[in-house]
Each structure stands twice: as C-alpha cells, then as structure tokens.
Amino acid sequence: MKIVIGIPARYGSRRFPGKPLALLAGRPMIAHVIERARSAALGEVIVATDDPRIARAARGCGCAVRMTASRHTSGSERLAAALADLPCDVVVNLQGDEPLIDPDALRAVVRPFLDDPRLPMATLARPATSDELMRPDVVKVVCNARGEALYFSRAPIPFPRDGRGAEERWAHVGLYAYRKEFLMIYPSLTDCAAGRSEALEQLRVLHHGYPIAVVKGDFSAFGVDTPEDLAEAERRLLASGGEGKGAMTASQETVIATMEGRANPEVAYATDGFVRESKTALFDSRRAKSPRKGFLRFDRE
Q1: Residue pLDDT, tens place only, 123-143
Q2: Hey, CA dihedral for 238, 296, 38, 16, is it positive or negative?
Q3: Can you give the CATH number for the domain in which 161 is found?
C-alpha cells in the first residue's frame, strides 16, 4: 500500500497570517511539521500550498511541493487538487499547523485501510476530559459498534442528561486519511446544514453516507491557531527536549557559517542544521557567499 502524507499550508489565515512560516524554537513551523511527518516513515511527504514563500521554505527542507490555487476552502480540497495525478493508495492529511503531532498518530490513522480495502476515510479520537465536554473548540465524536463515526459536534455528545454523562467521552483529533479514490470525489460532495452549523467539514462525508473509521487512543495533539498558541507550542517543544532542529541538541559548537546577502527568515533556513544563536532565523549555508560568524550547529547524538 503506497501512502503519501500531504501537508496543506496556506499563508492567508485570518487569525494568524503567515502561520506556517512563524518561527517555533528558531525554525519555521512548517519545518517542524515536515520533520514529524518524515519521522512516521510512512511514505513520501508533500506540501500543498498556494504561496511561494511557503513553497520555498518547504523546499529548503528538501520536501516536495505542489502548488495549488488559492480558492480551496479546506485542506482536503487542496490536497485533492495537488495530488490528483500522483499514483498512491492512501493520503494522510496533516495540517500545516500541527508541529507537535506524534508520528505514532500518523501511523495509527492508516491502519484501518489495511483491514478494509473499501474504507474511504479514517480519523482519530482521544479520551475527553470532563471540562472539555462543554468547550466548543473541542470537537466530540460518537461512534457505532464498528468503530465508525455516528456524529461529530462541538456540543456535549453524548449529552449528560442525568448529570453524570457517558462512561466514555471522545474528543476528535483533526488528523485524516483518505483512500485516494475517495479524496478525488470529496470536493464534489455538497455541504450539509449540520456541517455549516457546526463548521465541521467531515460532517458532509457522513451526510452523503460514507463511513469514517475512528481509531481511538491516547493521542496527543496541539494545533496552532493563534500567536498565543505558538508560544505554548514552543513551551511544550522545549519541555520535551526539542529545539532548533527537532531533537538535535547533543553537541553545540560555534562555527563559521555563510549566508547569502541579507537572510530572509521566512525562506532562508537550514536543512543541514545551522541556526542563529538568537534562534530568530535559520538559513541554508549551501547557498551562501560571504562568511559570517555566530551560528550554532546542532548534531545528533
């Protein structure tokens, strides 16, 4: 089974413009997402974007890029357009604002396709805490006996009529995988009233009668929607021992590095592990002309 991890990324977020290029522990956020995707070792990783700045950043990581139009309203539609001519069996939709995604979650979301050759779509769920039940920013999911989604909602489902609630409550983790054939028809599925009301695109899939397998587990996820989220993501990343180039921290030595003219922190960052001591920008030393001092190199243990 050939698997592709697609990372849809756009620059024009209303709440956080330029989000994929925001610096997280000294590196553009999209670089962290690419690194996590590669760590899953599932297959090719491709960034789908409509913005040349994001494209340059991804290519600087050595990642394949496919350009798309700017009209797409969801990451799923962007991937469908970007990967239409790419031969593969399953496409994982990893949003470009998930720099802390666990590679095990990526592996888990593709497992149902091994068991069911006709399955169109899969996603993940984690245990929800009692305080999350009433939070509309935490999407809840209820499943049937086959482990397929019955409904997703921002409301508390199942509703705790007796005040105690259900024994199990599940929060949706916004990671999707599609069989390639289904991804190609996904954009043609008309939206539904429930999907518009909840602002949840996956409800259109259920509305049209397609099953969504839900893999349940203790999955951790933290999406970045605002600058405040970015600060929290950096705190979590550093607390877990990651900085600079992911887990590269063992030896740090000051080296003479080179950079090309004036470094643009949005596009000029390293695939070979160089980072400014200030951690405000990264760059690719292979493109350089004039020597500069004061950079750190991060090497693996």
Answers
A1: 999 999 988 999 999 999 999
A2: positive
A3: 3.90.550.10
Query: Has residue 291 been placed in a domain?
Result: no
Residue 239 lies in a domain: no
Could you report the per-residue pLDDT of 246-270, keeping only the tens digit for each?
A: 333 222 222 223 233 333 333 333 3
Residue 82 has pLDDT above 60, yes or no: yes
Would the CA dihedral through 36, 10, 239, 295 be positive or negative? positive
Prior bond of 158 cis (ω within 30°)? yes
Helix/strand/coil percent split, the chain, to 5? 30, 25, 45
Instruction: Tell how strand 43-49 and strand 121-127 pair up.
Output: unpaired
Range of the domain at 132: 3-216
**Bridge partner list, 8:** 48
Residue type at 249? T
Q: Tokens in use for 167?
A: 């024994």
DSSP states of 192-203: -HHHHHHT-TTH
Going by C-beta distance under 8 Å and a sequence separation of 6 or more, which residues neighbour residue 143? 125, 149, 150, 170, 214, 216
d(C-alpha 271, C-alpha 76), whole Å? 28
